[in-house]
Records
---
Amino acid sequence: MMLAFVGLVLTTVALTHAQPETGSITGHVRLATRIRSPLPANVYPSRSIGRHDAPAAPEIRNVVVYLKDVVFRGALPTAKAELYQRNESFVPHVLAITRGSTVEFPNDDPFFHNVFSLSSAAKFNLGRYPRGQTRAWKFTKPGLVKVFCDIHSHMNASILVLDHPYFAIPAVDGTFELPEVPAGEYTVVGWHERVGERTASIRVEAGRPTSIDLTVPVEDAR
Amino acid sequence: MTRRPPRLLVRTLAVIFVTVALLLAAVFVVVTVTVRDQVRQSVTANLESGQRIFGAVERRRQRELQTQAATLAENPTLKAAIDTYAAEMRSGNDTQRSEWLATIANEIDKVAARIDADAVVLADATQHTMAAAGRLADRFPAGRPVAPSGSRGRQGLDGVVQTGGLFFRVVSVPIQLGEVSIGTLYVATNLDQHYAEELAALANARIAILSDGLLVASTLPQATAHQFESAVTRHPSDPTLLLDGESYAFRRLVDVGSTTFYALGSIDESSRTATQTAIGELAMIAAGATALALAASFWVARMLTEPVGQLSESLAQMSVSHDVNLRLPLTGSSRELDALTATFNQLMASVAAAEEQRQAAYMGAIRALATALDARDPYTAGHSDRVSVLSVATARALNLPDDDIEVIRLGALLHDIGKIGVPDAVLLKPGSLTNVEFDIIKQHPTAGARILRSVPFLVPHIPIVELHHERPDGRGYPHGLRGEDIPMAARIVHVADAYDAITSKRAYRGARSSGEALQELWRFAGTQFHAEVVGALATALPGVVSDAIEPAVEQAHA
């Protein structure tokens, strides 16, 4: 939440300087129950060890809304984001950043963690390190980066690296806002790691907000 | 012709033997029937316990496989590779596809190396094969859907997969990433002959595995297995089936989807061995029992027959020897036989007493007869008694047996019985006899023999009476026998008769002394008299100063 807020603030600042002819996109993302896979997902109990009573982030926070195939002119704003390792999981589970941003991976658990990725956008292994330490990685290629821990096989996170700043993670109630979008025709994407992209077309006019509703067929755990 | 009755021994043996044989036959029948019944029960019980054990062991085995697979599925690299691969594919980015697949294949190979299975198969979230490893990995080509039939338990899937012409028992575990299943790991065991044999060892029975009614594997002979295949479809609820001429009990061990595991036990085969064992043991017992029975019956029979035989032998001996004084010994074998023997002995004792009385009566009668005979002639009064006493003494001196002595005693008493037929005119004639008269006298031994012949009791004494005037030189009468042809008893009585005649007073001369008599006898020894008998008489004479002689001598002197 805080990260998203930071991201949005940064984006707003950048847009104010570069493009005066902008409008904003506001909308709402709804999670719909998708069709079940042939195998039940939970034949095994979660194999994570430790505190399961920690409140899990709502599923809606794992959705990223962004504009597809946008060419951003000018210097892409970068940010320093943080992906905590906390209660044997990555928090947040989904992170969206601009290309060139650096992500820190602080270890908040009282035991060792590891961070590695096999994704084509970023292949790295930050090694194992104890509580209180952190490692950072700068993401220089756009794309989806899946992050894992080689000690705790159930830990995973997705980092969506984008070539432009027009993205947002919806609030808990599903609402989002993409401010200062140049006027034009766009394809809005609601992305979720398990379903991929769900798209909708939108026309943004300068100086006024445009509204859109997106439906992502993901089971809401709550 | 009458058949002789069988011997007691044979009869006893036969009775005991037949009894034992009947007993054994009855036991044999009972054992055979019982054994078969028990075998049927035990085969069924064995199958039941096999079913229980198998069920427990199999459940445990599947659970262990599943646990093992689940543990091995918790592989960060494997999960990362699968998830990354899936994410990249969704993004349409397959430039590094082979790299991820190689990572996945490598991890699956490692899993396969650590688990005892014919194949380890990784399926993606849509149940299509991504990678396979293990001995029979080639039956699970990549991209094909894995479609197991079976039940999904709490722990996961326990099912059967048919692929590439083979049947596999599979357990599966989902590969979870957080709360999301990103794939499935299958651990497959081929349902082949080897598997069936393992089950058979476990269940201690024959095993047949049928999938949708078709034979997959079995430890039965091939023909029997195919009969079972069709029979179990037609009569699934029968407790036993007749396969290839043998009776089988069978049970469903477990159902996995449409695949069923059966345990079978041949009742006939088991009962054959059991019966054989029982009969073998029975035969040993029977042999022992028969030997024992034979020995026992032989002993019992001998106990009965031996004393009886002994008794009858004694009786036979007794009847041959006419000896009423023999007594049978007590056998001590049984109270009854001893009572019989004792009674017999008492009977014999009374018979002997009666015989003795009879003898005494005879003796009395004969003595009376002899005395009466002697009394015809005053000169020969007491002659027969004296000759008898002398003869007995002489016979003793010659060491003759007691039986012979008794014959001599009576024979000597009767030796002149034939003179009963000699007229007084001849017998009592004081002067010398004419030839005719002497011929009459010479007939008295033959006449005496004739008299005795009519009394069976006196037959042994005939030679003495008939031959007591025969001489060793053959000039005696009535037959003129010579030397050794004359019986000893007759010789003795001849000498004793002569001695008494010489020492007796006659009408024509006085009595002569013993010494003169012996002189006279010695003079004619070898011609008229046998020398050894004369010698014996001489030896015996001093001891015969008995009343039997002295009165006669005194009378003769008076």
---
Amino acid sequence: MPKIFIIDDDDDLLKAQRLFLEEKGYTVETALDTEEGLRVLKSFKPDVIIADLMMEHYDSGFVFCKKVKDEPDLRSVPIIMQTAAPRELGYKFDVEDPVKREWMKVNEILTKPVPLDHLLGKIEQYLQRKK
Amino acid sequence: MMEGMDVAVIDDEEGMREGIARILRKHGFSVDLARDGETAIELLKQKTYDLAFVDLKMPGIDGFKVTEYINEKYALKTVVIIVSALATVEAAVEVTRHGAFDFLVKPFTPADLLQVTERAVQQRKLIQDREKYLSELNNERTLSRQLINAMQEGVVVLNILTEPVLMNPKAEYFLGKNFRETKNVSDLFADEKILAAVGEAADPSSGMTAERVFEIERNQTMLKIRVASLIREDEVGGAIIIVEDFTEDWKAEQDKNRFISMVAHELKSPIAAIINYINVILTGMFDANPEKIHELLARCNIRGEALLELIRDLLDINKRDSGKMEKSIETVDLGEVLEAQSDFYRGQAEGNGISLKVTTPSEPVVVKADRSDLDRIFMNLISNGLKYNREGGKLDIDLQRENGLCKVTVRDTGIGMSPEEMKNLFQEFYRVRNRKTGSISGTGLGLATVKRVLAEYNGRISVDSVPDEGSVFTVFLPASPGA
């Protein structure tokens, strides 16, 4: 069964997404902050990572993703970022721009709330690509 | 037209002196007489004359010397008319070459005299007008120069070759360049777009162009650069650049954007959790397990309530910031406030096995404040002390009077904070986010509001904390005098 790792500082969101994905047959592990996340990833090797952006800091998600991509055995794992931060204000990034996307180390950014069917579709899409 | 003009008549012939004087006085001139060169010089030392009739041939200091003297001392002020006998016409002409305006040949009729005088008066007026004009022009130039130099904005004026012809001190300061070492506008800016705009604005063949505005950063300062054509007599005569420092506005805008961005994030986060829970319920996976559905709905309920609380806090902050908060200031017993707030939270404390204790001195400690503001401060601190505590922990609230201040300490035995986590604790939307606080709901506005409210009463708050041991919040409020 494909393995999914979710990191988010919102306990409820983690719980809902875990329940949903487990019901769909995935193995799910979660973490509430960067430190815990990196620890979990030492033993749990996911097929897709879903990461929040604003956690301990407003850019924790980017830092976390950078650290994940620095790990040789995690480098190829696709990362879907989901954030409630508004795109129009506060932060500006463009995942269409390959250079910037490379710097951000994420494959895609979704805006919360992300309907779970949509999230599932995205996960399946990345798993398909891997094959 | 001849009123008030001062005339010196210098002639060694009494008849001639008096004759000229009589005619001129009749026409409104004020006339002084001198019978020789020496007397004339004395006279000229005391007053600046508009006209001087100078006899060329006088014993001692003659007309040449007097004219020389006048030219040296009063050039462009005193108009000299040489009076001479026929025999010395050539000499008279010579003198006019050396600064005399005209000459009158003896003998002359009163009409001759008046004609020459008329011309001299015109000359004098011309000189006066020119002087006045020059001095006004000079003043005006000095004034505009002073104004430009005193401006808060930087001003750079460029000719059509985009070479600076003027740079005020502010422009030198903002752009970090001296006028003297600036040969072209390209020494001031590197930005291609600005240089192109300046080139276009200064180019007469491009016609007058509309003002263009650019924003650049230089030496940690945000500069607004306005570029426009310089219009001289309806034609483009170069370009003008106005440089403005808008760092403060820019920072305020950044702060506002950051705040709005945080508000959007904080409003969307609980909605995301609620929607995802509903997504789960709607899959039908728990249709046979109503207890599980109930559990998820209870969480939705809590997140919804927290969202409402956040909106209320936001409106409250906005009201405080706009000064629209109505206050009813009264004398309040602080111990009583603490007791009342603790009673309100006692149920919640007991539910978590936390012992909640309030210690107050025997004498009442009184402050002047709006009761609801005090409630808000301690409601936030007590609620935090319970939320971030541990099962079976303690929450001790202690009130004291200290050096004319009321001091309240709220001490918990909770998860505590690292120095880094404490750094931004009183900032809007800052919440300590880690695995220990993940399930604790909060708006991120509680402590920011406490700090704001305290500031309204010249109070303050400080925090001390040890991770995994607990935190102590200390509030100081000015005690009401005489209480």
